[in-house]
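Follow-up to my earlier ticket, as requested here are the two runs.
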Amino acid sequence: MNDFLPIPQNARLGFLLLMFVFSGLQAQEPPFPEIARLGRVPDWSQLDAYQSTITREEFFYLLSHCYSRSPEDSKGYLRIQEDRVLILKQSNFPELGWYDLRFRREDGLSEPAPKFWRGPLELRDLPANTTKPLQGVRIALDPGHIGGKWVTWDDRHFTIGADTLPLKEGEMTLLVAKILQRDLTLLGAEVYLTRETNNPTTTERIETLQGEAKSFLLRRGQIPSEGAIVSTAKQMFAISSEIRSRGEIVNRTIQPDLALCLHFDASPWPSGRPSFRSSNHLHLLINGCYSRAEIAEDDTRFEMVQRILQRVYYEELALSDLVSKTMAHETRLPAFHYDGKSGMSVNENEFVWARNLLANRIFFCPVLFFEPFCMNHRETHLRVQEGEYPGLREINGIYRKNIYQEYADGITSGLVRYFRQTR
């Protein structure tokens, strides 16, 4: 007697069809991960060294207080449980699973989180009455943007008026960086620049990034028109590739205790043409305020978690809190305020804001990101025209240092005060 019941012909066909569809799903390649422009697919095993190095309470505090813009922004990507946090490995392919990061118990011992930078308490004590309060501190200076013939690719230059010099942010930040290098070195610091000329550090060019730009647009569901490809390739060159190249220099070569990202601000002009605006202000940025779209990017989520595990926030906040005050005193600039979406406040200092930028995310050390002086404010524009003069000069009825020295002195005095207090 046959032990199997006969299967009707139509049922057999349905079963075979179901098996065919299932086998097709099994063989389906996972989609390309969601990553930022020119980002790398994360290797989640790199977080293994951070197992049991942070408590649940501290992880939750850092995520909710500074890094995730709101609880909703990280929901679905990080699951905080009693003894661990589960981190989604690939946003567009949940089948890949979750990375399991175990928390340290409140009463448990753990090894320090892996990092190359040193906080003030990890540095040697300073001798009494030293004239070199920054002795042994490794500092990376990142002059924002690019200068020379590359300014047309960078879009951080403009001219207002027929007989005036053009303002080129990449060249202005390099002037500030070289003043800082001189002054901080005299105070004992080991100072390195991510670039020392007006040339880019990346070997990529707009022409070499066309294919990558097209692929990026297609992955994002956008039409890769010729204009969109060129525009995306331009952004990839000036922002993504250039900053990622500097990130390699910072993380692999310099390995500093602190990185200073130097920029000048600018107010938007509604007409689309360069024009003077009434705003002139100052703010400092630390890393944080990740939106849901940013956390959805696998590499961005990985980098955010790594910053949390290294506890970079505490050092960034303490430094920026003090340096912002010396900057405000030196520059006489009022504070700029964000709306809580692209940047958010993390303490009562109105000059300090958290914002997720590529440089302050992928430089794996404490990063202070400076945004003083609106370049299209009349006084800033006038001071740039005056150049790098010695001593003091009357500007609108007040005797001032040249704008580059003033910028540098605001930072230098803050760093000296901070390291004297904390070492």
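Run two:
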Amino acid sequence: MEKFEILGARELNGKIKINGAKNALLPIMTSTLLAPGNYLLNNVPDLKDTRTMAELLRRIGASVSFKNNQLLINTVNVSKPVAPYDLVKTMRASFYVLGPLLGRLGHAEVSLPGGCAWGPRPVDIHIEALKKLGVNISLEGGNIVAKGNPIGNNIKFKFPSVGATGNLMMASVLGKGQTILKNVALEPDIISLGDFLIKMGADIKGLGTSELVINGKDRLNPVDEFDIIPDRIEAGTFLIAGAMCGGSIEIENVNPDHISIVIDKLIESGVRVKTVKNSIIVNGNKKIKPVNVTTAPYPGFPTDLQAQWIAYMTIANGLSTVTDEIYYDRFTHVPELNRLGANITMNKNTATIIGVSNLKGAPVMSTDIRASASLILASLASIGKSKISRIYHIDRGYEKIENRLKKVGADITRS
């Protein structure tokens, strides 16, 4: 099993280009199932999850080729509305095929999702909303079997779920009549999905607000070419790396508006941050101020940067707290950070961090994508050598992260 070896306590200096957003890409890939034809997606990150979704589309009947960060998808022969357990168990985003398969074929069989080994991420909100669209849903042999063409209705989500918002958008655009979705997610990934669907010919009003009005169409059209938006979580991760390790890091190909709250928190912690068009420059500060964070739906602080922020606060000058209001038990990285010398205690969904003067290298183990990122950041800031095992998680969300960190001065090797 591969691992990272990191010799820490080195300044990072240079430029890092941000790749396309995984969380925007995956639902857009599944939305190509809605209309038969050819699609070209640009700025596609070369990730394990990208390839898993590509294989899932192939199983359903699509043709998919991937080269030079471009995806070419042909969905003319889609005819097998089944997402099997062997793929879905490795990536929860596979559940996104449910909405578009119902929209196009009126039938979908999707295994209950797997993915990262932390906490419940229930799909009940998806299922209950689809039932309100007249879809008949049953559980058979661990698979969700959904039948029926969606019929418009008014739906208010109890929580602005990104996954449920995306799935219901895709199910509704070919539905009969009008669907109104209230309390929807506002993440840039959802806005990008909406832009893609509108480009296909979907009738969606209210994109970017908490209420969407969708008038179902009889048919949609394929999109010749579409650019995937930059990954704000990847950008935030590298900005925090620059803040932790000192030096000056410039993050290129990013939309600063997508991570404005992260920029504000970094400035509050005492580092200098400058935005120039599609770039962000962070200059580290050895005297890091403690800053409390509570995760929230966009535009709040992202839960996908919670682990990285905890890593950052381990070397702050004082006490800070990090509360996750999205996923209450997403804290498997905490005991591993403590192995590096951090002082973190947990009370339910709140981590209390007392900053230490130095972290020290140690062997640690990854448990999910963002936990992996936090351990890499902490190891980069540690004195001595760290070994991070189970790094296959990081490959699901960050393309060749070690090569990009090496270019800015990190001593990191994969073995």
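The only thing I checked on run two: The chain has 13 helices and 24 strands. Let me know what else you need.
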